[in-house]
Amino acid sequence: MARIQTFKFCVLNVKTQPHSPEKYIELFKRAANLKGKVKIRGDQVGIIGMLKTGTGVVEGQAFKFTLIDNNASWYNISKNEEASEEEVLNIQIPKDLAPNLRKFNFVLFPSIHMVAVETYTVEGVFGATSIRTFFHNLLNQPELEPDFGEVDVILQPEKEAIERAFNLSRLESLNIAISKPNMGDFFDDKSFYDKLDKMKVREFRQELRADGSNSIEPDEEIQGLARLGAKDGVVRWKGVDLDGEKVDESTSDHPMIRKGRVTNDFNTRDEAFLDSSQAIMVELFNWTG
User: For the chain, how many structural domains are there in total?
Assistant: First the structure.
């Protein structure tokens, strides 16, 4: 019996102003056409390797690989020592080739500016934090700034992530950041964003600090803002948990990760991933405060 392939994926909330579905499609197309290698972490870089427009979505592949530093030292494994200058000179790697290629699918839903991205497949692992770094650097390349401005890229957290702050034994600080636009008109937060529009505000921030050794007791309004920040921004908190341990966390530390699998209902992993991505967008659609 053939082993069933599984994959995991996270979700990014991508925001730019002014925005429209067409604007997000153009942003991704322009970013892909630049063919720029953007830094992920250490010697790992990434690039959009494929992009195609479907019905209501844009499907793509992110290529992650290692960029070799030709000026760095080399190691001789058999001799257990640094490679000599002569040995290094004998290394012949074509300048157009890079090792350790890993490919990860992603799907952009332009109407709600959400992107589902694979974090784990048979090809390897692409951590959620690294994915956020890749897309942030990709979409904020200098060549894109004149037409798209600053692009916010936010890791969508688990809905329950913000409850970790409210359940602390002592909540010492709470920082809420909410940026426009929201994920669509299907949320009941329109009045809040209308208020930001009226004040010509791009990002709302609120910071609360406990009085001395007391614990912050968020009222209904603050809890509502924090939950809005969890789904449409970033919330960070510090305090002490029920075990007496110090806590310094944010909603980004608890990304929404979902699992899918390639079954007989699908011809390829791409099809299975698209189906799973559409399902998680329904889950986000039903996310109310």
Answer: 2
Q: Which two tokens stand for residue 103?
A: 């490919």
- The string of pLDDT tens digits covering residues 164-199 is 999 999 999 999 998 876 655 444 566 777 788 788
CB 31 within 8 A of CB 135: no
Examine the domain organization and report whether 214 and 263 are in the same domain: no
Do residues 45 and 138 share a domain? Answer: yes
Residues 259 and 130 in one domain: yes
Cβ neighbors of 55 (< 8 A, separation 6 or more) are none
What residue numbers bound the domain in which 62 lies? 5-156+255-285
Distance CA 289, CA 285 (A): 11
**What's the pLDDT tens digit per position in 24-50?**
999 999 999 998 899 999 999 999 999
Angular region, 35: left φ>0, alpha ψ -120 to 50, beta rest: left
- Cα separation, 63 vs 251, in Å, equals 27
